[in-house]
């Protein structure tokens, strides 16, 4: 008999709400208020999310963020910056001691990304797992998530398809990720600082050999609803679970909005944004 997991579809939200909701899901699952849960969501505006400990002072062009009217948010998870725009985003919360979840981060990625693999197959895309041949050194690291591939991420012809990040807190694992339909390379690279315009253009030109999105692969425009259907079925197959829709109460939404306001909403973008600290009452 298949295990039942919760499924939450919250549609398009701003960056602060999206990150606050992911954090609250972790908190509610820890307290036993919700079962293991898969969430699908989108973004009301292009949004740049940066990793929890990512240094942004010399990496992010905040004037460009204002110019493009992008949201900016620091994630609870680590990793590099991701431009969320034309995409389906997912998050999963599940206890670390779940019998099907490996203890290591890498192997847990392998298990949870099976749902993503099946979702791509439902779209007719033969994605494969990435197995990097060498370790990424500090010198090699990029500020842009889709420029680098880690173990068990999805690739096709060596090009990265999705970006994922994971954290563990109080015995609960949170993993979320970006599944883009298209990538606005011009906007993406405009949001970062480079030593020179020449280097920036070289990096942008090389990006097409490192990452690719669904619309380009299939030569067809996809919608959020099309991806939601394909990956909903994909996660059920890949994780061998039955997804049961859940809804949030008014009180739960109130907590999400409060956390978004006090922790994730950044009123004034500047180049001295420090890693977020957990507020009282959150995870």
Tags for this entry?
283 residues, BirA Bifunctional Protein, domain 2, alpha/beta, 6-stranded mixed beta sheet
Would you mind describing this structure in some detail?
It is built from 9 helices and 12 strands. 33% of the residues lie in helices and 23% in strands. By secondary structure, the protein is an alpha/beta fold. The two termini are 32 Å apart. It is globular and about 55 Å long. The chain has one domain: BirA Bifunctional Protein, domain 2 (2-Layer Sandwich), CATH 3.30.930. The strands form 3 sheets. Strands 10-11-6-2-1-12 form a 6-stranded mixed sheet, sandwiched between helices. The protein has a 3-stranded mixed sheet with strand order 4-3-5, covered by helices on one side. α1 (15-30) links the parallel β1 and β2 (37-43).
Q: Judging by the overall fold, what is the CATH architecture?
A: 2-Layer Sandwich
Low-confidence stretches: 136-141, 270-283
Describe the biggest sheet?
6 strands, mixed
Helix content: 25-40%
Annotated CATH topology: BirA Bifunctional Protein, domain 2
Give the secondary structure arrangement, pairings included.
Elements: E1 3-13, H1 15-30, E2 37-43, E3 47-50, H2 62-67, E4 71-74, E5 82-84, E6 87-95, H3 105-112, H4 114-122, E7 128-129, E8 154-156, E9 159-160, E10 163-169, E11 172-180, H5 185-190, H6 197-207, H7 214-218, H8 224-239, E12 241-245, H9 250-264
Parallel strand pairs: 1-2, 1-12, 3-4
Antiparallel strand pairs: 2-6, 3-5, 6-11, 7-8, 8-9, 10-11
């Amino acid at each position: 008999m298949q295990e039942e997991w919760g499924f939450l579809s919250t549609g398009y939200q701003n960056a602060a709400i999206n990150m606050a909701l992911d954090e609250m899901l972790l908190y509610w699952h820890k307290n036993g208020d919700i079962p293991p849960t898969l969430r699908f969501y989108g973004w009301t505006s292009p949004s740049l999310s940066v990793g929890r400990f990512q240094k942004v002072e010399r990496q992010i062009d905040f004037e460009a963020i204002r110019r493009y009217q992008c949201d900016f948010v620091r994630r609870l998870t680590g990793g590099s910056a991701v431009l969320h725009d034309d995409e389906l985003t997912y998050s999963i919360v599940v206890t670390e001691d779940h019998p099907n979840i490996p203890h290591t981060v890498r192997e847990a990625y392998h298990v949870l990304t099976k749902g993503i693999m099946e979702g791509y197959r439902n779209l007719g895309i033969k994605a494969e797992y990435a197995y990097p041949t060498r370790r990424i050194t500090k010198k090699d690291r990029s500020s842009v998530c889709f420029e680098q591939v880690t173990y068990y991420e999805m690739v096709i012809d060596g090009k990265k398809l999705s970006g994922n990040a994971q954290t563990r807190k109080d015995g609960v694992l949170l993993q979320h990720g970006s599944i883009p339909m298209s990538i606005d390379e011009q906007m993406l690279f405009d949001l970062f600082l480079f030593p020179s315009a020449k280097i920036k253009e070289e990096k942008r030109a090389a990006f097409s050999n490192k990452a690719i999105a669904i619309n380009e692969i299939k030569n067809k425009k996809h919608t959020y609803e099309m991806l939601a259907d394909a990956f909903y079925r994909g996660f059920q197959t890949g994780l061998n679970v039955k997804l049961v829709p859940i809804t949030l109460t008014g009180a739960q939404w109130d907590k999400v909005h409060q956390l978004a306001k006090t922790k994730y909403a950044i009123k004034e973008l500047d180049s001295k944004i420090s890693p977020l600290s957990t507020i009282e009452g959150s995870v």
